[in-house]
Amino acid sequence: MRKIRSCGRLLLVAIFVTPGATLLCAQNVPPPPKPAPDGPSLVETLESLKQTLLSSAVPAVIKTYPPDTTFPPISKGIRIVGVKNDPDNCRLGIDGSQVVNDTPPKPWGVAYDLETIDTAEVMTLQEGQDLLVTHGLDGPAKLSDGYVIVIDDMPWPFPLSFSNKDTAIRAAQLFRRAGEICRARPVRLNATGGPSLSETLLFIQQKLNEEASVVYEIQPQHGNSSRVSSRVANAEAQPTSCQIRYKDFEITYDMQGNPRTPREYNFHLLFRYVRKLEVVDEQTFAARLGGPIISAVTPNVYCLVVTGDDEYDFYFRDAEMADRVAKAMNHAAELCGSSKTKEPF
Q: Which domain holds residue 47?
């Protein structure tokens, strides 16, 4: 999944992390992982999952919105055309061909970092849609028959939808097993000075839970102002797999101060993929992206943008705190992968 909100220009720190260097054994090692589950190997598990996905029938999903809305019905179908197994890096990629209504097919793809998968459950497509509404990520709609695998409480993307329930259950079991095997793998760390990985991730966990919470007002050059609340919650350090897990909440208020539907996201930040960190301000980034010009942000807020295979953003009231967390994340990336810089936090 990809999500990055509006946040602005380079302000304090730009730290680049280059993956691919030879990994060395470090004396500061993370806690030992859980024992690997008995049964087929990861290679065998991923091959079974690949064949299950390629042979499955994916339903053409019909999505109908309530009559009091202006949204027309949507017909969407994604045919899986390829599955790429990467057991060495605990990754699985799905390539698909997507058709929306009567438009020509377009290529579509998604990749899964298997060590981030805790749960993989089967729901009906309607139950998955209702869960999206609960998270504030879509409006109420009626979906056609079918099943979907919900990974870590988030029912997307569509390639994990199935016509047959037994096939969906089989695929979900294989996703869970792959996640268990990958989380049980020992983490190989770079030898680098400074705090240990556990100390570094616990620092990041504490600061995200305590400091990554802001409320601010945006005044566009044209139009009405709006108030935004952004908050990280339940950040959890997981040194055994070099990651931070967290929930991200975002609420926008209307002119009368009434909250619109809050949006809730589940995220996993894997530090072995981090290659760039920036602390930026809110006002100029929208202009840099070609969005609406913002006349003022009150009070000023600072966004830490983390770029890896995906992009993540964390909002702070204080620029110095955002800078400290960026340096801590850079150190975690050094330990978990490789880096050109070595800056203490």
A: 42-183
- Mean pLDDT over all residues of the chain? 83
Residue at which a domain ends, from 183, 210, 234? 183
Half-sphere exposure of 18 (CA within 13 A, CB side): 5
51-68 confidence digits (pLDDT tens): 999 998 888 888 998 888
Residues 6+ away with beta carbon under 8 Å from 125: 59, 61, 143, 144, 145, 146, 147, 148, 161
Q: Is the peptide bond before 157 cis (omega within 30 degrees of 0)?
A: yes
Q: What is the pTM of this model?
A: 0.79
Task: Sort 137 into a burial class: Cβ within 10 Å, 0-12 / 13-18 / 19+.
Answer: middle
Identify the burial level of 330 via C-beta atoms within 10 angstroms of its C-beta, where 0-12 means exposed, 13-18 middle and 19 or more buried.
Answer: buried
Point out the domain boundary residue: 143, 164, 183: 183
- Per-residue pLDDT band for 288 (boundaries 50, 70, 90) equals low
Task: Note whether 231 and 258 are within 8 A (CB).
Answer: no
